Every structure is written in structure tokens, then in C-alpha cells.
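Morning run. Coffee first, then this:
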Amino acid sequence: MRATLLYGAGDVRVEEVPDPVLREPTDAVVRVVYACVCGSDLWPYGSLAASEHGFRIGHEFLGVVEEVGSEVPGLASGDLVVAPFMWADNACGYCAEGLHPSCRNGGFWGAPGVDGGQGEAVRVPQARGTLVKLPVGEDSALLPSLLTLSDVFPTGHHCATTAGVGPRTSVTVIGDGAVGLSAVLAAARLGAERIILMGRHEDRTDLGRDFGATEVVAERGAEGVARVRSLTGGHGTHAVLECVGTEQALETAFGVARPGGTVSRVGMPQYARLPLDAGAFRHNIRLVGGLAPARAYIEELLPDVLDGVVEPGRIFDRTLGLDEAPDAYRAMADREALKILLRP
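And here it is:
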């Protein structure tokens, strides 16, 4: 079968790889209907050292079950399923606490011996706990929105919920990428009273307004902090959702948080230190967030997607074939596209 491999910075290839087969009775094999490129994929795409042997990449996919192991009840050939961006047994103590990224029996797609999500098919370990059955057909117009349940929408939701977003909450979202826009949508879904989106790309911030942003701040750094402070009477907002992952973004987050506020970070950290100072300490500003337990949120978010209450799939602005994956990475890295669907 065909699958995407990353050989180094800027070097994505689509090559023949072995077809997936059941290795354990807890496995399933899923034929991929849709995958996509994640913003976090762009970090290694921009910096990975060159290698003779590429590694499988991609962690967001939905598809049709082709085969299940003997210890995978509740799933059968022909079922349409979505997979969260990490596989997990959904049964260990950590999973019971909603900490699926820490699952004792889980792991990452594309790890040694594990398929990546950007391919024609995937062997799914711990399939019973990982896969969520979807009550639609593979020709449903809802598939792009359902695919967001794999990662980006639960990540935005995690950012908002850990920051305590709810009715009467004021929120600043830092970043107008797919995660930032998903965080806007999540905050609006949770009833936030005011949502300030910090972003510079008009086509993206326009979508952010559609998702629920009440104001947009294009300035960055100290100017951005000053602008948010001005909009909020000098106070800042109750919750700040940091969806970029850079040190500057986190510094901005602390700069726009009001006293007693909460900064939640879900951007993949690209920094070695936390910019915490006496000001954050004095004003009791909390830092929360982390890698989202997407599997813990899928059942909660699924009904609103099925009913059309939210349309997170609007973040996809381009669809390409799997063999065009190198073009997809380039387009997203060059900010020519927000988020790209891949269809094998």
C-alpha cells in the first residue's frame, strides 16, 4: 500500500510500504477514507535532520474497519470509525482519569512498529479502546467535521475546558491556525461571553468570527498585549488559550491574563523554559493544559457535530490525494492553506 514518510526537513515522500495485518488479538485494520496534515507535523517537517530511512507520519484519520482481532468486541468489518491522535486501551487507571496520553498500554501513531495515519490503511493497536464508531456512511458530508474529532477539535476543547471557560467568561485565543480556530469554536460552544482572537491572517480570522470570536487583534508581542489590555479596560481576560507553542506566544498569554486568570497551553512547546515571573506569581495566574486526551472528549463532542450545531470541518480549505502529500506539507508550511484533507 501507499503511505507518507518523512525523510528530513522539507522531504516528504509517498512510498510503497507493507500492508497492515493483525499482529495481536486486540488489533484492527482500518482502510483510511480521510487523513490530514496537522500543524504539529510541520515542526519536524521544518527541522528534522536528514535520514536514509524515512519514518511514517500522520496521526489523524477516519476510515472503514476491514478486519478485527478476536479481542475487539463492538466493532465489525464495514464500520466507519474515527481514531484519536494517540491509541490507548481506554481502560487503565490513567484513561479512567481522562489522561489517555499517559495510557500504560498506548502510544503514538508512527512510532517504531506502528503505522502512521497518512496511508491507505492502518493497523490499530488496542482497537477496542481507541476507535469510536460513527453512525454515518463513508459518503457523508459530515466526514470532514468528524475527522476533526481525531485531534484538532478535542484539542481546542481541552484548551478551553482546562482554562475554565464557561458562561460570562472572557477569553483570549492566541493563534489563528486550526487549533486556535478550534479553540474559538470550543469556547463559544461552552458559552464564553467574549472571545478575542489574536491572529494576522484575515481569511482565518474571518472564519474565527464565524466560529464565535467577538474581536480580532492583529498586533503581536508587546503591541498585541497592549491592544488586548485596551479592549478589556486594562484588565485582560479570565482565560487565555495558547495555541501556538512558541515562547513569545506564552509570554503574550501571561501578558493578557487578568489577575486570577488561567493560561491554558496546547501548542506543542518549542521552548526550553517557561516565561514565569513575579507578576504572574503576584496576580495568581495559573498555567494549565497539555497534550489533549482526545479519546476522552469524542463522545461528548460527537452529538453536536452530528446535529450540525458546530461545523469544525470548515477549517479544511483544501483536499488533495494521498500522492500529493508533499504538496500539502509545502502549502501548509508556506501558509497557503490552513489545513489540508488527504484522500487515499
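The chain is about 30% helix and 25% strand. Good start to the day.
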